[in-house]
């Protein structure tokens, strides 16, 4: 609302309802339009990669909980996959199924959170968020049942999972999976065809497929732009190649497409979990591995499809029990590559919604 | 070491790369291709544009401190062909490391190279916005370097897991000797403070 | 957990509603003495009410000062008593003014306290939470506790704020919110400020709130606050026009600017203007949500964008006053919607039996519930969307409807047929016209309702990059 | 106009009005000046009410305090900080002289002249029954031509404001003035 | 003591005088407009006062003609404000100032 030659600087964050954590955007505005934007992160930087160099591979698993704290299971899984590839540890089949089940449950929980906060950013006064929280809550109950923790699960291990789920886990899981599609349909009535929501999200924050690929975007941000890329299909880990599911792909690459891709993915995840429950064999849940893993000197880049995209672990071993170099390829950090390009020229509400649709987790950005 | 399930053999990539851009490849193993740092961008652009490799996306890039040099590792991937290529570039200068920026080819390098600059101190020439990202301007040093905090010979790393027992092979995954300076390591093995010493320069 | 999934109702929401504890179940679970006590209480309540009903029907109350159906009678009686004592004309003025003022203030204050609780409870119900339930029975004292907490808080003034102006807005914004209640008639004789330009008065008073909001945003020395203030000012100025235009139709039919006359017109014609002027009702309601910052038009304090808008920097009781005014404005809009469109205190003759102010209060509560419901359901518009909606859509259509209702009002004044029939015909015509014109104008403006099928993601099992994306785009 | 209430009301309102107007002169900040001006407008509306002009009083609040002041605020906010001072120009001395002279003259004349006016009971008896209806009749009856001219004037003011601040797309680099504000001008 | 026509005229005169001071003495175009608005207000007060106290008026219609005049003045004031403020914004945009001393486009 001021003249063009007078920069109107707005600090969004580090404490702001729509930054989903301690994340700061420094925005130069002209009226409601953003003319320049700078992203300031690092408030949560714990130098995990440095700390990890002094811990064994197993000791590093809790760090992955705290990196992407909304998808701790996926973080665990990523590190385990990479470390198993480095050490050559075999994983029992039952453990692989358990991992798939928990990773997919985590995906549902994380997507519920992402979509709920996105709708909150669009202005719905927390109702969708709390509805999504209900589903997430049930999933976290399942986690608690299994490993005692809800958020920082630390459940997966190199060579399997830490615990066999208790007996009451399975009926609860079945009930949840039976009920979830109904619930998702119900939310779709509230949200997906809501005209205000459509007006706020259609055609906003459009990322073309070319930009998305070139900008290293992965996960729903990439799929929302119409690129059918999912590591569960492209490079199947665990038992994903035995399960029947589909990749949802957006049409225009806007905020709404990313939202809908997440919505659809939760449905596909329930499908996966249902099949996994059917197929899961009996057997050990874990390979016994020694306390100190001393992998051969070498390096490996292991990656999985986390709820936010390609979660990669680049591990370099020098033969000692600790990794020589431990690098996390954090999807929500790299997905921000295009944020400035998206935000500049759009209005403040649009930028907020766009940021929400990219679905950042500050723990993972800062590590 | 098995490369990833979809990772291309470094030899194959190196062969094609060398044919197109003679002299660009320094070494190649089964896993990666090491290119000359000065011509890194050329190599990346060629891989990006070639229809055979179609390395459309820079999946990951990070640096490894090898005590006397830096290794920059780029994991490229083709979504259409569903394969992965690992490219490395060695920076010999450990004091003032610099490398051309991959931003010209991959926009996704924007934040990743800023991160590497912040934590490793590698300067990327041609990067549009090279500032520290996680740490504040003026932070002393680059924490991911092995000589960070300047503790002389003491470098991070875990030479021996505390509960590890050389006499019971079932508690050790791989009792083979270490690659780096095995004799020195063997001497220090029982010395408790030096347990936390990392690998010495090769 | 172990219950049979198949035998239960289809949607989870329905299931949850059905599984709510019912009244019958609650009665069954209470112990017998309590049940007996409740029965005696209910019986006594019934008896007392029947007695009052008999009293009312017999007509013994009519016109007396103790006629509880219209507290205006009592005040009038007091005034005449004072005038008889010959104490000077100013005394009766002051006494009645004080009574009215205190009455409005205490009513609004009480309703604010209850309203906060109701809003929070209702939102909690919408959001499958419990809501305030700790302080007092059912958490009813929670608003009081909140107010106490807010009063205790330190007075913070941001550095660089305009200190003189910073203290004004919480008071300034409170004044119009209170003054607006003046002309609202609660019963035939029960209006504090029944001026003959009441409608215009309400519009004028509501336009004053802009200034308080602007001062708040400007004096805070905060960019969020200023942004929120500018948004508010822009919105209020543009939405005042549709509000005025929609009320113009009301005036055309009722032929008066006096609020009691408007209610009396609806009462004598046994109709609600909502049935005759549906579009005006919608315009008034929607524009009012924009003017008082309620969802879906709460962009002035859009918390996900500009934190709290113009009152970002206010803390303690000053913020409390802003919040109270926000709620009070919702109630005021409820009162105005009821008065202009829903028959005010009248309810098709029932106001003879039930105290009319209770009827009006019920209507206000209904509108207020609608506000809370909207808040619990809808996302927020963007500023440019809202402005575009006002200028491109509401204002042209409102002007069209002013013309239409002018024609209809003149027909109504000239046609010599029973009023109800003519009004019914007009109402039907207007409903049809609303649908037709809204559709047609939407097409003229170029707005298309998004279709659900176009928005669903494509499902595929093959992975790929750019080429696969292009392939998918060609053959979805 | 002899009852205590109206006398008190008159003096209070007159004081508020004049104080607001003086505040416009003395305040340094242009926005403060606008707020003083609004105070003056509101006091003026009160004076109108003491003159039994209820419709005009409400219209005064609606138009001056509600609309014109918002326009002023917008105009100030659309210009940058540096031009927000309320400084005096070279003409302040002659202006003050002229203004004070005129005010003194009018006050002197007003107080000193014997006006042919109603007063006392005659004035109280002469109250307007329904100002709104009569004004409406007059506007669409006796003064219909003036009414039409006024509406044309408003229309042209609207168009003029739009034309003045309208930016061609090419000029509107980086949205130098955003559309809502322009619309405000037009309003 | 009573309030009479003269009192209102005096208030009106004072406000008008202040309006002249503001309109002539201020540098900012917006402030000048404020002075003009003050003068218009003073005139309105005068018109209404005459309408109220005028003894010569026989009927309501004649008495309320003063009110009608005020309505016209209000209309003109609103139109004027809109146009002048649009001009101020425009002038600022072109010449980076709204100070009338420095806008000397039509000096000769």
Descriptors:
heteropentamer; B: 202 residues; alpha/beta; Beta Polymerase, domain 2; 2 domains; 4 helices; 7 strands; globular; D: 187 residues; mainly alpha; disordered C terminus
Describe the secondary structure blueprint for this structure.
The complex is a heteropentamer of chains A (367), B (202), C (476), D (187) and E (108).
Chain A: E1 8-12, E2 24-30, E3 33-40, H1 48-52, H2 61-67, H3 72-87, H4 93-121, H5 127-147, E4 156-157, E5 160-161, H6 169-191, H7 195-201, H8 209-214, H9 220-224, H10 231-234, E6 247-249, H11 255-279, E7 298-306, E8 309-317, E9 323-329, H12 331-334, H13 339-343, H14 348-358, H15 362-366
Antiparallel strand pairs in A: 1-2, 2-3, 4-5, 7-8, 8-9
Chain B: H1 10-20, E1 25-28, E2 32-35, H2 40-49, E3 57-65, E4 70-78, E5 83-91, E6 98-100, H3 109-120, E7 123-125, H4 182-188
Parallel strand pairs in B: 2-5, 6-7
Antiparallel strand pairs in B: 1-2, 3-4, 4-5
Chain C: H1 12-18, H2 23-29, H3 32-57, H4 71-84, H5 89-126, H6 142-152, H7 163-166, H8 168-179, H9 198-219, H10 223-254, H11 259-268, H12 273-276, H13 278-291, H14 303-306, H15 316-341, H16 356-377, H17 383-414, H18 419-445, E1 458-460, H19 466-474
Helix pairs in contact in C: 4-5, 5-16, 6-15, 8-9, 8-15, 9-10, 10-13, 10-17, 13-15, 13-17, 15-16, 17-18
3D architecture notes:
The complex is a heteropentamer of chains A (367), B (202), C (476), D (187) and E (108). Chain A is of the alpha+beta class and 367 residues long. Chain A has a single domain, classed as Cytochrome-c3 Hydrogenase, chain B. In chain A, 47% of the residues lie in helices and 14% in strands. Chain A is built from 15 helices and nine strands. Chain A has helices at 48-52, 61-67, 72-87, 93-121, 127-147, 169-191, 195-201, 209-214, 220-224, 231-234, 255-279, 331-334, 339-343, 348-358, 362-366; strands at residues 8-12, 24-30, 33-40, 156-157, 160-161, 247-249, 298-306, 309-317, 323-329. In chain A, helix 3 (72-87) runs antiparallel to helix 4, helix 5 runs antiparallel to helix 6 and helix 11 runs parallel beside helix 14 (348-358). The longest helix of chain A is centred in the first third of the chain and has 29 residues, at 93-121. The model of chain A has no long low-confidence stretch (mean pLDDT 85). With 202 residues, chain B is α/β, with parallel strands linked by helices. Chain B folds into two domains: 10-125, 2-Layer Sandwich (Beta Polymerase, domain 2), CATH 3.30.460.80; 151-202, no CATH class. In chain B, 20% of the residues lie in helices and 20% in strands. In chain B, strand 4 and strand 5 form a beta hairpin. The longest helix of chain B has 12 residues, at 109-120. Chain B is globular and about 45 Å long. The relative contact order of chain B is 0.12. The model of chain B is unreliable at 174-202 (pLDDT under 50). Chain D has 187 residues and is mostly helical. Chain D has a domain at 129-187. Chain D has helices at residues 4-26, 30-50, 54-78, 92-112, 120-125, 131-140, 144-165, 179-186. Chain D starts with a helix and ends with a helix. Mean pLDDT of chain D is 77; it is low at 170-187. Chain E has 108 residues and is mostly helical. Helices cover 76% and strands 0% of the residues of chain E. Chains in contact: A-B, A-C, A-D, B-C, C-D, D-E. At the D-E interface, helix 1, helix 2, helix 3, helix 4 and helix 5 of D face helix 1, helix 2 and helix 3 of E.
